[in-house]
Amino acid sequence: MERKDKVRGIILTHGHEDHIGGLPYMLERIRAPIYGAKLTLALAKEKLREFNITGYQLNEVRPGEGISLGRFKVEFIRVYHSIPDTLALAIHTPAGKIVHSGDFKLDQTPVNGDVTDLHRFAELGERGVLLLLSDSTNSERPGYSPPERSIFPVLDAIFQSARGRIFASTFASSIYRIRQFIELAVKHGRYIAIAGRSMSQNIRIAGDLGYLWLPENLLIDLKGVKNLPPEEVMVMTTGSQGEPLSALSLMAMDNHRIHIEEGDTVIISARIIPGHEKAVGRVINHLYRRGADVYYERIADIHVSGHACQEELKLMLNLVRPQYFLPIHGEYRQLIHHAKLAESVGMPRSN
Fold first, then answer.
1. Residue 106 phi/psi, 5° resolution?
2. Dihedral in degrees, nearest 10, Cα atoms 89, 128, 134, 28
3. What does the buried/exposed string (b/e) look like for 123-132 if buried means 16 or more CB atoms within 10 Å of the residue's CB?
4. How many Cα atoms within 13 Å fall on the side-chain side of residue 74?
5. Staple partner for 176: which of 75, 111, 274, 320, CB 3.0–4.6 Å?
6. Residue 217 DSSP label
7. Exposed, middle or buried by CB within 10 Å (0-12, 13-18, 19+), for 311?
8. Are 318 and 92 in contact, with CB atoms under 8 Å apart?
């Protein structure tokens, strides 16, 4: 790998799989200090343990702090995303300031109370920013990304009407969504079981660090599910993307220790990643064949994105007011749409 001797540090903006999953492979070629917030490092540490990688250096950082890497100073800024401890970066270089948005949205009623630090972005814009790199995931979507809490009433109504067991499936790293499901289980007097290795692992880590509260008196193992009345059980499970070996897929195919039965309710609270449509559709069809009531994004408002939509992206551009703009984190069409948004708020096409 070219210039690997010049790498001074590896910075993790948050703990989602698409941002830490490549770390074991990178460390095979590059050994440099790793920086991230508390939860991010805990998830990364578990990932490295799975690959039997040792000898790395983890350095915890917090919003408002900065580190020096060679001639660069990196400042960490709090942003809201669907997982705690997400960071944006302000990189102070001899040539000028570079702002990296990280994955973000502008949720004004966040589950954890930590809103995106718009004040700091505005301060940086006042002082002059050379380059902005910004999340393009939802650049095709008009308006604003709905707040995470907006789905709670819909989920609450589903819990209220559910006749039997509830199976709740989402990304294992969507800590705020998991937190809402736990709150609902407590509210409706349901015991909580966890299915899927990654779901169990992430809930344990988030709980140990204080990002999730899981009442011990309501936590049961999977063996205990069959011993309780169906209306008193919720199972948190992996498999929102139809992965063939995930817990939900195995349940749908009747290849799991827990069998989906008539009267059960399944909630798939996640956006279908492009390319997974057939797999998710297959799982949903099998769930219906087993007599379950199934709720998913296409028919119920049970998911909101953790990424900023067009008006939020334009606000970020107007706050930072960079000299140059580079859309990142998206498919090519999304990068193009983000570039057009930048032009619409006055960014010259040549920049």
1. -105, 70
2. -40
3. ebbeeebebb
4. 21
5. 111
6. G
7. middle
8. no
Can you give the pTM of this predicted structure? 0.93
Q: In sequence order, what DSSP letters do the residues of 235-285 get, joined into one string? A: EEE--TT--TTSHHHHHHTT-SSS---TT-EEEE-SPPPTT-HHHHHHHHH
Q: Using alpha carbons only, how large is the chain's radius of gyration in Å?
A: 21
What architecture is domain 148-296?
A: 3-Layer(aba) Sandwich (3.40)
Residue pointed to by tokens 């700091």: 120
The total number of residues shown for the chain amounts to 351
CA neighbor of 324 nearest in space, from 83, 123, 130, 67: 130
For the chain, domain boundaries: 4-144+307-344, 148-296
Burial class (CB in 10 A: 0-12, 13-18, 19+), 297: middle
> What are 198-231's pLDDT values in tens digits?
999 999 999 999 999 888 899 999 999 999 999 9
Q: Name the average pLDDT for the chain.
A: 95
